[in-house]
C-alpha cells in the first residue's frame, strides 16, 4: 500500500509542477488553487508512504516520478523539446526508480 501511495504522491507532484505553469506567477486564481491542492495532497501522501518506507528511497522515488511525469507532460502539453539526450536521461531516472524499488 505504501508504494501505491508513493506512486499517487508522485502523480500529484506532476500535477502541481505543471500547474505552476498555468498559474501565471500565481496571478490566476483557479490554477493557483488547484496547484496548491495538488501540493498538499502530494506531501500528505508522501508522508503516509514514509511511515513504512525508508525516507531516502521514498523521497528519491517521489521526485523521480514527479520529474519523469513532468518532463513527459511538458513535452505533450507544452511543446517542450524532444531530444535523444532528454529521453536517455528520462530512461536513466526510470532505471533508478526501478532499482530503488527492487532494493527495498
What would your notes on this structure say?
This protein is mainly alpha-helical and 104 residues long. The chain has one domain. It is built from four helices and no strands. The protein has helices at residues 2-23, 29-49, 55-78, 84-102. The chain crosses the membrane at residues 33-50, 57-78, 84-103. Keywords: Cell membrane, Membrane, Transmembrane, Transmembrane helix, Transport. One of its GO terms (molecular function) is transmembrane transporter activity. Belongs to the drug/metabolite transporter (DMT) superfamily. Small multidrug resistance (SMR) (TC 2.A.7.1) family. Gdx/SugE subfamily.
How do the strands and helices of this protein lay out in sequence?
Elements: H1 2-23, H2 29-49, H3 55-78, H4 84-102
Helix pairs in contact: 1-2, 1-3, 3-4
Q: What descriptive keywords fit this protein?
A:
mainly alpha; 4 helices; 0% strand; Small_drug/metabolite_transptr
Amino acid at each position: 500500500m505504501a508504494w501505491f501511495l508513493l506512486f499517487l504522491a508522485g502523480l500529484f507532484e506532476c500535477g502541481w509542477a505543471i500547474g505552476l505553469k498555468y498559474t501565471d506567477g500565481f496571478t490566476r486564481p483557479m490554477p493557483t488553487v488547484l496547484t496548491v491542492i495538488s501540493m498538499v495532497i502530494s506531501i500528505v501522501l508522501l508522508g503516509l508512504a514514509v511511515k513504512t518506507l525508508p525516507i531516502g528511497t521514498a523521497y528519491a522515488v517521489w521526485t523521480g516520478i514527479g520529474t519523469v511525469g513532468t518532463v513527459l507532460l511538458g513535452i505533450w502539453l507544452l511543446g517542450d523539446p524532444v531530444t535523444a539526450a532528454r529521453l536517455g536521461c528520462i530512461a536513466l531516472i526510470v532505471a533508478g526508480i526501478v532499482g530503488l524499488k527492487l532494493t527495498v
